[in-house]
Design brief:
Low-confidence stretches: 1-19
Helix content: 40-55%
Order of helices and strands: HHHHEEEEHEHEE
Structural class: alpha+beta
Length: about 230
């Protein structure tokens, strides 16, 4: 019974505090201040920064009011640089670890995949499999082509798809990743191929967007036309 009473009292205090806060946001200055605070809070939460909120508010208040500050501009700049350097080193370490894992998984997959029925391997290391062989012309690297495609990671996660958008895409064949430039030239119009692209023919150690460093990629590509 005592625990129920305490929880009920805490809930009542929280509700009263919320109601009191809502009543305080009457002027435009109060509302603007709260909105800016919401934006700052959301940004800090997204960054995952480990900060002391009370200290942050103290610094905001002192700076805004022109009061004496606990740090000089030089001290603040030095602390900021130290923080940024530590975060950058942490990110680089994580990227290097991910790149190593992805490269190892990719090598294992490609080694096993090349032995599967129907899979062919080019001199560059590109692997492909014919799903449907068309009877049209083959594009040159300088051609513009229109394709439907679906791209996935080795775990099956789809990172891009023109099928999902229900909209084919067109591009200059020599302006995409090397695995596409080489692979699509093997396709007569009307064909559908599967491509298994090692990282050196894809996005390499840098990756891009949802594609991690040294990722081996799988593409289903349907060549619709040479424009």
């Amino acid at each position: 019974m005592k625990q129920i009473f305490i929880k009920g009292a805490m809930l009542s205090v929280a509700l009263l505090s919320t109601a009191a806060l809502a009543a305080e946001l009457e002027t435009e200055a109060q509302k603007l201040g709260y909105i800016i605070g919401m934006d700052i809070g959301a940004s800090l939460k997204q960054q995952g920064a480990d900060i002391d909120i009370d200290t942050l508010l103290e610094a905001v208040r002192a700076t805004y009011n022109g009061d004496p500050l606990a740090m000089t501009p030089e001290e603040a700049a030095s602390a900021r640089e130290t923080f940024i350097a530590a975060r950058r080193a942490e990110a680089e370490q994580q990227r290097a670890s991910m790149a190593s894992i992805n490269a190892e998984e990719g090598d294992k997959f490609l080694l096993e995949n090349r032995a599967k029925e129907g899979v062919q391997v080019t001199e560059s290391g590109l692997q492909y499999k014919v799903v449907v062989m068309g009877d049209g012309a083959k594009p040159a690297a300088s051609d513009k082509v229109t394709v439907h495609y679906r791209g996935t990671l080795l775990n099956g996660e789809e990172f891009d798809s023109s099928y999902s958008r229900n909209q084919p895409t067109s591009f200059q064949l020599d302006q995409v990743i090397p695995g596409w430039t080489e692979g699509v030239q093997l396709m007569p119009v009307g064909s559908k191929f599967m491509f298994y692209i090692p990282p050196n023919l894809a996005y390499g150690p840098n990756g891009g967007g949802p594609i991690g460093p040294n990722s081996t990629l799988i593409f289903e590509v349907e060549l619709l036309s040479i424009d």
